[in-house]
């Protein structure tokens, strides 16, 4: 059984408290004419799973997606396979939450789980009305592995902010 989180919504939280998974059996309507799952279907599921991990970390309010970063598809997923998406918070800012999202698939005929995708989702915590960003609890960093995770996340955030500024500048050129 999961350990209960503190009732203090501002208390720092471990990444493990946000871990969540979502799984489905793929259907023909989710596939392209070649019998493989559309990437957009996997992205939607990845976004949903990452958002739930972010919401678990925050503990209240609403979550909105700010970015899906570096989603890499490693191999196809075929109709009839079980797909599992696993997400866990890897970084928090003042109002933002980053989650690592990993996608696995396995044939039901020859069950062997394989990693088919990986990326990051960035979410923003909103107030109960969904209008204004609100501060989020810090992410606990207790071990050396946590510190390595934190350094890598800081580097991703720097790149993410640069891409955001580039997108804003590009948009301004056409308006």
UniProtKB/TrEMBL annotation:
GO biological process: acyl-CoA metabolic process; fatty acid catabolic process
GO cellular component: cytosol
This protein's name: Putative acyl-CoA thioester hydrolase
One annotated GO molecular function: long-chain fatty acyl-CoA hydrolase activity
EC number: 3.1.2.-
HotDog ACOT-type domain mapped to chain residues: 16-129
SUPFAM superfamilies documented for this protein: Thioesterase/thiol ester dehydrase-isomerase
Keywords from the UniProt entry: Hydrolase
Family: Belongs to the acyl coenzyme A hydrolase family.
PANTHER family (alphabetical): ACYL COENZYME A THIOESTER HYDROLASE (PTHR11049), CYTOSOLIC ACYL COENZYME A THIOESTER HYDROLASE (PTHR11049:SF24)
InterPro entries: Cytosol_ACT, HOTDOG_ACOT, HotDog_dom_sf, PAAI_dom, Thioestr_dom
């Amino acid at each position: 059984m999961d350990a209960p989180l503190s009732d203090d919504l501002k208390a720092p939280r471990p990444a493990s408290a946000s871990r969540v998974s979502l799984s489905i059996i793929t259907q023909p309507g989710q596939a392209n004419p070649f019998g493989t799952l559309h990437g957009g279907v996997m992205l939607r599921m990845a976004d949903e799973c990452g958002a739930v991990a972010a919401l678990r970390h925050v503990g209240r309010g609403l979550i909105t997606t700010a970015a899906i970063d570096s989603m890499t598809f490693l191999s196809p997923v075929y109709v009839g396979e079980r797909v599992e998406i696993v997400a866990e918070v890897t970084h928090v800012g003042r109002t933002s939450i980053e989650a690592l999202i990993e996608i696995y698939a396995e044939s039901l005929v020859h069950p062997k789980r394989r990693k088919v995708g990986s990326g990051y989702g960035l979410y923003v915590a909103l107030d109960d009305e969904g209008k204004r960003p609100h501060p989020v609890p810090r992410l606990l960093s207790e071990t050396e592995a946590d510190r390595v995770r934190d350094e890598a996340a800081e580097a991703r955030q720097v790149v993410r902010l640069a891409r955001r500024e580039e997108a804003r500048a590009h948009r301004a050129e056409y308006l």
